[in-house]
Amino acid sequence: MEFLVIEAVVGVMILRYLFETYLDLRQYAVLKLPTLQLISQGAISPERFRKFRAHSIDKSRLYFVHEFATTLVDCMILLHNILPWLWKRSGSLVLCIGLNAENEILHSLSFLAAMTLLSQIFEFPFSLYSTFVIEARHISNERTIGQFLKEWLLGQCTSLLLGAPIVAAAIGIVQNGGSYLVIYFWLFSLLGSVATTTLYPRFIAPLFNKFTPLPNGELRRKIVNLAASLNFPLEKIFVEDGSGRTTHSHAYMFGVQKKNIVLNDTLFKQCRDTDEITAIIAHEMGHWKLNHTVYAFVAMQVPVLLQLGLFFFVRQSNALFQMFGFDTQPVVIGFYIYQHIVMPVQRLLEFCMNLLSRSSEFKADAFAKNLGYGRALRAGLIKLQDFNLSVVNTDPWYSAYRYSHPPLVERLNALDESMKKSS
Question: Could you give the residue numbers annotated as active site?
């Protein structure tokens, strides 16, 4: 019976891999097209399109290798009972350093540390190749090996320091939640989500990037005036020093009552027209004005509660733990079993959330257009695509399944259609 259950889970993993690989192959075929999908005449030069195409094809090839290797390793972990073996070894490690292995929290932290280490060892060569071969070949990556290793180590230490108390609290809630486990855990995840949203940009992000106030000038004046016209609760405008590591650019905002705007410094190299940068900010303010963040947050609670209910079912099933090779029912192992069993449900929920996110992006674009920034936003989006070497040609099935943001061709078509109607 144990073998049949493990075999069924592995079978579902392989079917998911085959389905997603089919979509990836559809996208790969589109990427190899020698011509640009029609957006409008002259949107992107033939030379830049060739660079987009070469960059996307290289990334896609690496992704094929990564996904095959990941699926193979995941299947081997289940078929060869690596999880119960690693759980026992991590308990022995706790004993070796003189701690109580019967303490589930200590045992779980040791197990998660081992799993994280193995995962990072697996991912490390892919990250190196992506950064120092693909990105350097097509985008002129600015990071050195030393910077890469420093950021990697800092990220691991940050995850450890933040993750350990969160895992300990989660285990405590599951152990003592009783029949109200789902409610308690939902409240815990809710507080964690709010804390992450508010604390990360203020305390964690500055560990990786330097934030300086946007100096006085035309751009600052335009953003301040735009915020005032929308009654946007603007507090500060920061410039983030991202150009030392990459040419990718972005803008975002954070804060609960008072909002702070962050502009990546690469934006100033890519969009020299202040109207284009203001248009991008108008798009972000559109998300705020249309309450997209609130709606997405509320909508997310439905799948969260559903998944917590499924986890509660897994947690209560002693037979499932035995089928996966465990005599006890550790909380952290329950999460691993849950992830493998409900994977199809997880993919479906992610697809639904992608649809909601894509809809919000179109509406935010329309909001900026209605403020008079349609042409500026259009030009800014093309320039960001141009410098970031993002995917241009996309397969509609792949796009609908994979992307939380609509690709450039869809956004420009929607903007063009809207501006035609307005004129």
Answer: 284, 365
